Amino acid sequence: MDQLIHINTSRNGHDKLVRLAQYSCKLIANWKKDPSWILQLEATLRLSRKLLRFGTCIDSLYASAKAVGEQRDPVLRFLRGLSKVANSMYLFADHLLVLHTSKLLDIDSASWSKTSSKCWLYSIVLQLVGDLYEINKLIENQVHNKTCRDIPVLSFQGVVEAYDPVFSFLLQEHKPLLRSLLTNLFNIFIPLATLGYITNKSLVAVCGVTSSYLYLIPLLNKQIR
Amino acid sequence: VKIKIASRLLAKTLGRDKIYRFLQYTLRLLQYLAEQNGHKNAHVRLLHALQQVTVARKMIRIGKQIEFLDAASTILQKRPKDPYYELPIARYAALSGWLCLDMLQWLHSLKIIQLQPSTVLSVKKAGWRFWLSGIVISFIHGLLTLRDVEARLVVAKHSKESKGEIKSLYQARFKKVRQLVADSCDLLIPSSYLEMIPKNDALVGVAGCISSALAVRDQIQAVASLP
After folding, report:
1. DSSP-assigned beta bridge partners for residue A10
2. If both were cysteines, with which of A21, A28, B45, B144 could A103 make a disulfide (CB 3.0 to 4.6 Å apart)?
């Protein structure tokens, strides 16, 4: 309970909890005969998330400058920076849609909604490419250096090490990178569904729930530590 | 530096809630003025925006009642030096009750639970009463602690305490007075809804704006002091 309270006090944690609830509602609505109240709840949660993240496009733009500064590898610098810029464009389009929904601004909502989804898709694709590039580099370094690691044989890690030492190395040393890869793999289905390339609503809902849970894991682990 | 502070403020749910509260009461005031001056189009737009911000604040407050109860139980366990520690506990309990009833109304509006119209009105009024009780308790606590700070200040001046000690007591007094001003403004809002004072959207809007602006200022100061 203390963990949930602490996660709820930060905007990011609160957003991820509401995101989990939103996609869970979507998933349940696919199974229910009369999903009207669940869909209304899902719409309310979706709107509240949009209002909650109002203004974060500036944060994302600031983060892109930081991402470019932190990375040494020029390829990663390009990919991470461009991904954050695409994310800030997605958020900017999203903010305009919020102002339109609140009747404070008149815009072509269909066109801006499409733009927002496209920018989000580009951001996820760039992040995925960045993650795969980084994993490839790490594997090359690991194969080249072949450092011997002290892992107990009779453990989950030991079994994984016996079958695939490279995957074991990634699992032990670079969990955040693997988690980012998985999250982006699940997230990519959501903008594809919004743009009409995927029509399976249950698949999108499952991907949404899974990626929301993957977002919450590091926040929960921070509390455990 | 300003972007950093704004970023930190908006990264906290409490900071965002205070800003949205300020926006909510500003919109309430503006929509009242638009209605009074016959600007129907502006009045409708502002009313719609106000409803959106109200929904957003309800979502931000989800789980807040548990936080309040947790804070109350922490005070009960730790028994701080504050001689009036029972008052914050009562305040947290009252605010938690208000938020629980507010959530009931929200679940009814989403048709997740079905309540009779008379029950909805009773729940609303009970919620406002809890809210008013919480503010009154906070006001009383503020008055009592201000009296203690004033007494300590008089003693400090007479016993020729260090300038630093006297300065910190003046700062504590200023904080208490500011809190009392915010509570006085907040008292008008549920009192207006319960028709204890004549119902006036302009008064509610102005009072809400002042107390929200003070709250945002407190949050900015708290965030700016972080390393």
Report:
1. B12
2. B45
The residue among B63, B127, B118 whose CA lies nearest residue B95 is: B127
Phi, psi of A10 (to 5 degrees): -95, 145
pTM of the model: 0.83
Report the alpha-carbon angle A59-A64-A65, nearest 5.
100
Q: CA A82 to CA B32: how far, in whole Å?
A: 45
Instruction: Give A96→chain B minimum CA distance, Å.
Output: 13
- Among B16, B44, B110, the residue with its CB nearest the CB of A11 is B16
For residue range A29-79, what is the model confidence (pLDDT) as tens digits? 888 777 788 888 888 888 888 888 888 888 888 888 887 777 788 888 899
Among candidates B2, B1, B19, which has minimal Cα distance to B10? Answer: B19
On whether the CB atoms of residues A19 and A187 are closer than 8 A, the answer is no
| Residue B75, token pair as written in the block | 């005070």
Cα separation, A5 vs B99, whole angstroms: 15
Cα A92 from Cα A86, distance rounded (Å): 10
Q: How far apart are CA A61 and CA A83, in angstroms?
A: 10
What integer pLDDT is reported at residue A36 of this predicted model? 81
- Of B112, B166, B171, give the one whose Cα is nearest residue B146: B171
Residue of A nearest to B17 (CA): A52
Unique residue bearing structure tokens 């998933």: A27
Predicted pLDDT at A225: 43
Select from B59, B67, B107 the residue whose CB has the most chain A CBs within 10 Å, as the one to mutate to test that interface: B59
Residues of A with CB below 8 A from B63's CB? 4-5, 8
> CA-CA distance, B172 to B176, in Å (whole number)?
6
User: Tokens 């208490």 correspond to what residue?
Assistant: B176
Using the 8-state DSSP alphabet, how is residue A33 labeled? S
The answer, yes or no, to whether residue B143 has pLDDT greater than 80, is yes
Residue entry with tokens 């959501």: A190
Q: Do you know the residue count of chain B?
A: 227
From the list B10, B45, B214, the residue with the least C-alpha distance to A51 is B10
Q: Does B23 touch chain A (CB under 8 A)?
A: no
Phi, psi of B115 (to 5 degrees): -120, 150
